[in-house]
Design brief:
The protein is of the alpha/beta class. The protein contains twelve helices and 17 strands.
């Protein structure tokens, strides 16, 4: 007789169409019970359109009734809130002192690095003042959803992406939000997106230290903050903002990333510090957090971002940044 874990294992073959992930990975399987030759399965209907529910139900039925010694599979749906189904190991907020330093780019590269290591990864583009993540990944599909719960959109490499930009009628619609609305929208994001089971969720915060990040912290159990800066930035100003924000959230700075650190010129085999000498070590000392990476100015990277192909960027600096982050979090877990 198939036991509950066999049944659960078999359900990994049933995908939620919009996300390309299984109903097990999306945490939609709420209960399995077997008695005699009957299996009873309770699924959450969260974010699923009625026709998707029917489709999933019949797939589950086929698969489970094909298991050894199972005669009947009874499948029921139950209501559940997205936030009650989300099971995320690490939520990492990415911040910067000001706009334009590469915060979205670093958020994306972190997600890409973690995904390449085999983790289940999501990105929440919470910078609703300049949502740019979908463009870098070449995404424009509207998220599907039902009854106020929405599903993220998968990228080419299977990173789950949610951004206000994906919800707007056209990509170029300007978003002019007033403070309270920003806070509410982010809070709603926090509660209504069904991420399911993720190892890492990277959150691209609005620049600076408005109230929005704090609202976000109230709806998300954040693990910590990563600070992005460039050699041009005033160290004291960023440190003050970052440390202030982390303190208000009662979280720590997990690491710092210097972007546009240098330009490598192959003809002369030299690194040119275009924006001035590196501030990496200084920033790491001042925030008491490790320097996770010093990213070069790379015209290829800029081009891939414009083309929506950031996932094709395959420099070892990205892999090392991802490994450094995983190390920081695993040593934090041991404390
Ligand atoms: N290291 C880099 N090399 C090349 N271009 C970069 C780099 N960092 C950022 N850029 C360019 O700058 C633009 C703005 O970066 P972005 O991450 O959107 O900034 P922010 O989110 O901080 O406002 C990107 O679209 C990209 O074209
Ligand atoms: Mg940005």
């Amino acid at each position: 007789m198939a036991n509950d874990s066999h049944v659960r294992e078999s359900l990994k073959a049933v995908l939620v169409p919009a996300t390309k992930r299984s109903i097990v990975d999306m945490n939609l399987v709420r209960d399995i019970s077997t008695s005699n030759n009957t299996v009873k399965i309770t699924l959450a209907s969260t974010a699923l359109m009625p026709e998707t529910r029917d489709l999933i139900k019949s797939k589950v039925q086929d698969i489970v009734e094909a298991l050894p010694d199972v005669h009947t599979a009874n499948i029921e749906y139950t209501d559940a809130k997205a936030k009650d189904l989300n099971n995320i190991d690490h939520i990492i907020a990415v911040m910067s002192g000001k706009g334009g330093v590469g915060k979205s780019l670093v958020s994306s590269l972190l997600a890409i690095a973690l995904r390449r290591q085999g983790y289940e990864v999501g990105i929440l583009d919470a910078d609703i003042t300049g949502p740019s993540i979908p463009k870098m990944f070449g995404l424009s599909a509207r998220p599907s959803g039902h009854d106020s719960a929405i599903l993220p959109v998968p990228s080419k490499s299977g990173i789950e992406v949610m951004s206000i930009n994906l919800l707007l009628p056209t990509e170029d619609d300007a978003v002019i939000w007033r403070g309270p609305l920003i806070g509410n929208t982010i809070k709603q994001f926090g509660e209504d997106v069904l991420w399911g089971r993720l190892h890492y969720l990277i959150v691209d915060l609005p620049p600076g230290t408005a109230d929005a990040p704090l609202t976000l912290m109230q709806s998300f159990p954040i693990s910590g903050v990563i600070v992005v800066f460039t050699p041009q930035d005033l160290v004291e100003m960023i440190v003050r903002k970052a440390v202030n924000m982390a303190r208000k959230m009662e979280k720590r700075v997990l690491g710092v990333v210097e972007n546009m650190s240098y330009l490598y010129v192959p003809e002369i085999d030299k690194r040119m510090e275009i924006f001035g000498p590196s501030r990496g070590e200084e920033m790491a000392r001042a925030t008491n957090a490790p320097l996770l990476a010093q990213l070069p100015i790379d015209p290829l990277l800029a081009r891939l971002c414009d083309e929506g192909n950031i996932e094709s960027y395959d420099d070892e600096v990205v892999a090392r940044m991802g490994e450094a982050l995983v190390n920081v979090l695993s040593s934090a877990d041991k404390l």
